[in-house]
C-alpha cells in the first residue's frame, strides 16, 4: 500500500492497525516525502536479513540509506492484529508499540510535515488514521 498525498504534520498522531501474515518474515512502514526520501523506515523483522524478533529503523535521503538502528523490544506476533501509534517533531519520531512501550528514532530529515507513506512486506493494513 502506498499513499503519496497525505498530510502528516508535527503534532498529529498516526494510528496504524496491521496484521502480520501467519508466515510473516518482516514488514516495513515508511514515512517521508517520497520513495527516495524516507524520514522513518520502521521494519519489524520476525526472521529476515539475519535478524530475529528485532525492529530495525533507518532513514533514506536522496536514495542513500543512513545507519541502521536496532531495537530488541518486539511486541509483534505472526497472525495477530496489532495497533501502534506514531507522532513526531523536527527532532524525533515517537512510536508507541502494541505493548504500550515507547521507542524513538531521530527525525534525520528534520522536517515537520510529510506526505508519503507506504507499507511493504508480509502484513495487511487493517486501518490507518491521522488525527
From TrEMBL:
Gene3D superfamilies xrefs: 2.60.120.200
Ranges of residues in domain Galectin: 1-131
Source organism, top-level taxon: Eukaryota
UniProt-recorded Gene Ontology molecular function terms: carbohydrate binding; galactoside binding; laminin binding
Protein name: Galectin
Cross-referenced InterPro entries: ConA-like_dom_sf, Galectin-like, Galectin_CRD
CDD domains, per database record: GLECT
UniProt entry keywords in alphabetical sequence: Lectin
PROSITE patterns per UniProt: GALECTIN
Gene Ontology annotations for the cellular component aspect, listed alphabetically: extracellular space
The keyword Calcium belongs to this UniProt entry's keyword annotation: no
Amino acid at each position: 500500500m502506498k499513499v503519496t498525498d497525505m498530510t502528516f504534520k508535527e503534532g498529529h498522531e498516526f494510528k496504524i492497525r496491521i496484521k502480520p501474515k501467519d508466515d510473516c518474515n518482516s514488514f516495513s512502514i515508511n514515512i517521508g516525502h517520497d520513495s527516495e526520501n524516507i524520514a522513518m523506515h520502521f521494519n519489524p523483522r520476525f526472521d529476515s536479513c539475519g535478524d530475529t524478533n528485532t525492529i530495525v529503523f533507518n532513514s533514506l535521503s536522496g536514495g542513500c540509506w543512513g545507519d541502521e538502528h536496532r531495537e530488541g523490544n518486539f511486541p509483534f506476533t505472526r497472525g495477530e492484529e496489532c495497533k501502534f501509534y506514531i507522532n513526531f517533531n523536527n527532532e524525533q519520531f515517537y512510536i508507541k508499540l502494541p505493548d504500550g512501550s515507547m521507542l524513538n528514532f531521530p527525525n534525520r530529515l528534520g522536517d515537520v510535515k510529510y506526505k508519503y507513506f507506504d507499507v511493504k512486506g508480509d502484513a495487511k493494513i487493517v486501518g490507518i488514521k491521522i488525527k
